[in-house]
Amino acid sequence: MRVHPLFWLMAFLIGAGGGERLALVIWMAAVFVSILVHELGHAFTMRYFGQDARVVLYMMGGLAIPESSPWRASSGRRVRGPLSQILISAAGPGAGFLLAGLVTAIVFAVGGLVRLHLAHGFVPIPVVALPEAANEQWYAVVESLLWVNIFWGLMNLVPVYPLDGGQIAREVLVAKDPWEGVVKSLWLSVVVGGAVALLGFVVLHDRFLGILFGLLAFSNFLAIQNLRGRVW
Length: 232
Fold this sequence. Notes:
The protein is α+β, with helices and mostly antiparallel strands. It contains eight helices and five strands. The chain has a domain at 158-232. The chain has helices at 5-15, 21-48, 70-73, 82-109, 136-156, 164-176, 181-203, 207-231; strands spanning 2-3, 52-58, 61-67, 113-119, 123-129. Strand 2 (52-58) and strand 3 form a beta hairpin. Helix 4 runs antiparallel to helix 5, helix 4 (82-109) runs antiparallel to helix 6 (164-176) and helix 7 (181-203) packs antiparallel against helix 8. It is globular.
């Protein structure tokens, strides 16, 4: 595993508005643990299908990078088809949801309560109630872990490439239409990415979300032009 210094800068910038120094440290630690768990979900599923992988955390999050392994290639590598690729993509958010479930179970075990509040009618925000003996730091730990693994996990499943949801959509569309499936998945990414960007700017007033999905939509549009240029 390798952690790029810009990873910490990204975590710092996202959590910098929190105020207290300790709360910022807790937030950065929660981001590190959560993204590491997410990428390990991808990596372990790759290994299940016979592909070694290493994890790199960088400014835009994390990557589970496949590595060639001659020994594994000659020792019963499982067949990699669309279903296996979908499972690999889904394993990252799935691992995060499992971590959120574990944190929730611990909270209930100590007499606390966790519920999801839907802000704006559709944005899931975890609301935590801990026993009176718990201090503010424990609230920060629990809320940060639940926020990252639930909200970011769901956003990662939005069908916008190269997010996990976009990769899943690409596998499904290519399986149905080998000729135009990739282009269809890119157009889906453009439309959905643009819609989420608009939602972020106008409804949620979240510039980071708006800029991120706006850039993703634009990059997918450029990818379409590049593919069309090669075809024609």
